[in-house]
Amino acid sequence: MKVSDILRVKGNTLYTAKPEEPLADAVNLMAERDIGSLVVMEHGDLVGMLTFREVIQAIVRNGGSVGTMLVRSAMDDAPLTCTLETEMDEVRRMMLDRHARYMPVMDRRMLMGVISFYDVAKAVVDSQNFENKMLKAYIRDWPEDESGG
Predict the structure, then answer these.
(1) What is the CATH number of the domain that holds 89?
(2) Helix (H/G/I), strand (E/B), else coil: 120
(3) Distance (Å, rounded) from C-alpha 27 to C-alpha 38?
């Protein structure tokens, strides 16, 4: 299973922020849309990721308030990325190694979507459920032993 399979099911609605916009605006968008991440774009290029983890760390650094901070001061400016062709096992390994919960999907320099650890886990469970159904159907249709034993 590849990343493209997850995006096909999930869709590719994207929420973005600009590095120079107020962090408070980005946090409000995340709360409004009930999303855990924003892709930070500048001049059409991916320049960072803003997740609830970065937001919380920035608030702590700023004495418990968002204040006048900008997205740039809170974002991860070296986010982990994958491509549409990346295999699911590789994505799982990358996300676990970096403790990443969200990963932008790139096609060269074009942003194609974002997958979350939840999306990956759901794809794995759905795949296992399908495989289990197929195996149970196969076992149910197992031919009887001709020797009667």
Answers:
(1) 3.10.580.10
(2) helix
(3) 9
Is 146 a member of any domain? no
CA distances for 72 relative to 36, 69, 116, 128, 148, angstroms? 17, 8, 22, 40, 73
Q: Is residue 46 part of a domain?
A: yes
**Structure tokens, 92:** 């799982």
User: Does 38 reside within a domain?
Assistant: yes
Q: Classify residue 74: in a domain, yes or no.
A: yes
Based on the number of CB atoms within 10 Å of its own CB, is 95 exposed (0-12), middle (13-18) or buried (19 or more)? buried
73-126 pLDDT, tens digit per residue, is: 999 999 999 999 999 899 999 999 999 999 999 998 899 999 999 998 888 887
Number of folded domains that form the chain: 1
Distance, in Å, from the CA atom of 32 to the CA atom of 118, rounded to the nearest integer, reads: 20
CA 108 to chain centroid: 18
Domain that holds residue 114: 3-140
Q: Give which of 71, 51, 28 is closest to 116, Cα–Cα.
A: 51
Q: Please give the span between the terminal C-alpha atoms of the chain, in angstroms, as a whole number.
A: 40
Alpha-carbon gap, residue 31 to 50, rounded angstroms: 13
pTM: 0.79
